TrEMBL record:
The keyword Signal applies. PANTHER family: SLL1037 PROTEIN. Pfam families: NMT1_3. It comes from Amorphus orientalis. This is TRAP transporter TAXI family solute receptor. Keywords: Receptor, Signal.
């Protein structure tokens, strides 16, 4: 019996040592809210010392999703609609990515579509005839822009399409006057940059009548009421924008001990994450194991159990 205990202890220590020595990557985009949250996670995980996490930056989320699915990258972050489509191989994803496993629900990602106050645009219907970003087909940006146009009873035929490859290019197009609208997360750095360049901006509001069409394009989306604020760009008068949960996920073959360690680092450093950016303001660590119809990684489930989370 004593020998068995020693063997079991050795196995546990070996597993911990393997996790401690490992450097892992987390896929993210260049700039924007996704980059902010992935960098914050990597910083806190690495600071704990057991796992060294390094952001791997590419232009679009759709470029690192298949890398994680193939096991060439360990972790990734994306909003729930994009993750859902990626796993299923529908909508934004032309191929299924069956090897993705959920690690944690992070927070409701609050975003919307902004215009400049001086533009005179007060509703999505006012975009008719204006310049609008045209992302690559079936990309996240393309779905969000379509959602805004649909809310105004419009299609791409009713506006002037301005091709953009990614979010940084979209922000530049608005700054240069090529477009009249831009996607942005509430409180994200680009909103401050846009106001610094263009003056006051404002989020356009969605309505309950828009919601069914929004849900068809973006599974898991919901309306989000934002009260007027002098501190956050774009909501001097308040707005009804949208939100969806942001997810951390991993390849199914990432070691359980590594996934558990990453999960617990996020849980233990929740205060530091919330302080890192306004986009973390709604993060609730007790909701990291929030149920979804996507499969969780065994290492994440083990961490949920250890921490007494449902």
């Amino acid at each position: 019996m004593f020998k068995s205990i020693l063997i079991s202890s050795a196995l546990v220590l070996t597993s911990i040592a393997a996790a401690s020595a490992q450097t892992v990557g987390i896929g993210t985009t260049q700039g924007g809210a996704t980059n902010q949250l992935a960098t914050a996670i990597a910083n806190e995980v690495s600071a704990d010392g057991e796992i060294q996490m390094r952001p791997q930056i590419v232009a679009n989320t759709s470029q690192y999703i298949p890398l994680v699915n193939a096991g060439q990258l360990e972790f990734g972050v994306a909003n729930f609609p994009q993750t859902w489509y990626a796993v299923k191989g529908e909508g934004m994803s032309s191929e299924p990515n069956p090897n993705l496993r959920m690690v944690a629900t992070l927070f409701p990602f609050v975003a919307g579509l902004v215009v400049t106050e001086e533009s005179g645009i007060d509703s999505f219907a006012d975009l008719k005839g204006k310049g609008v970003p045209r992302f690559p087909d079936d990309s996240l940006g393309e779905f969000v822009i379509r959602m805004g146009l649909q809310a105004g009873g419009l299609t791409y035929d009713d506006v002037t399409e301005v091709p953009v490859a990614n979010f940084p290019r979209m922000y530049e197009a608005l700054k240069q006057g090529q477009t009249a609208i831009s996607i942005s997360a509430l409180g994200a750095r680009p909103t401050y940059d846009l106001e610094a360049s263009l003056g006051d901006i404002k989020f356009l509001s969605f309505t309950e009548e828009n919601l069914p069409g929004m849900e068809q394009l973006m599974p898991g989306i919901f309306l989000y009421e934002v009260e007027a604020s002098d501190d956050l760009p774009g909501i001097d008068e308040g707005a009804t924008i949208f939100a969806y949960d942001y997810m951390l996920w991993a390849n199914k073959d990432v070691d359980d001990a590594v996934v558990s360690s990453v999960f617990k680092s996020i849980y233990d450093n929740s205060d530091a994450l919330i302080a890192s950016s306004p986009i973390w303001s709604d993060f609730k660590r007790d909701e990291m194991c929030k149920n979804s119809d996507l499969e969780y990684h065994p290492g994440a489930l083990a961490a949920c159990k250890d921490l007494g989370l449902n």
